[in-house]
Amino acid sequence: MTQSTWDAVDAYFSEQLVGHDPALEEAAVAADAAGLPEIAVAPNQGKLLHLLALTQGARRILEVGTLGGYSAIWLARALPADGTLITLEIDPKHAEVARGNLVRAGLDKVAEVRLGRAADSLAALVEQGVEPFDLVFIDADKPSNPEYFRRALQLTRPGSLIIVDNVVRGGAVADADSTDPAVVGTRALHELIAAEPRVTATSVQTVGSKGYDGFTLARVQS
User: Fold this and answer.
1) Distance CA 109, CA 115 (A)
2) What are the domain boundaries of the chain?
3) Which CATH superfamily groups domain 3-220?
4) pLDDT tens by residue, 116-143
5) What is the DSSP string of 147-196?
6) Which of 99, 50, 113, 40 lies closest to 76 in space, CA to CA?
7) Residue 1 — very low, low, confident or very high, per pLDDT cuts 50/70/90?
8) What are residue 164's DSSP bridge partners?
9) What share of the chain is helix, strand, coil (3-state, %, to 5)?
10) What is the rounded CA–CA span in Å between residue 180 and residue 160?
């Protein structure tokens, strides 16, 4: 199997099951025009997030890592009219692009982009004692994943879902000797989850237009 095959299959599924979506396409164009890295989720992956949020009946969603707001649009669309999405972004340029994309998608009333270090923004949310989130999507700097997950546990409730993206690291996650900070952080995340009695979780390897990767899905139990 080759990358071209994965690309073709993703394109087929996206054409059949996602279809033409002006807001999402404009968001991708705006991100590209602004020079943002091409690391947003693929359309079919975005729809998976959307379906998980719908299945969860999510009213409050937290996203760690906004980029250009592509995944935020997918998640925010799953919210009811009185729902809330808070998405965290460290880069001012990325945040500006994301805010523009959310406005054009008509979601700026339910989605808020908070600028700053995710660790600081998460700590502030904990300090504020905000209402728990029903779903948390973590897709930011990988060395900090353990800290983000710990904060996510403080900001959720029994029954909440926590999704962590990009956990396979091209297969390097299985290498106990790796010194790559992203791999070290990802392995530490899974060691944390394995020892955490408050969650039940699994990880899934994927292939597609984003290459060889995968995600971790955890449900808060207590």
Assistant:
1) 17
2) 3-220
3) Vaccinia Virus protein VP39 (3.40.50.150)
4) 999 999 999 999 999 999 999 999 999 9
5) HHHHHHHHTEEEEEEEEEE--SGGGGGG-TT---HHHHHHHHHHHHHHT-
6) 50
7) confident
8) 138, 216
9) 45, 25, 30
10) 31
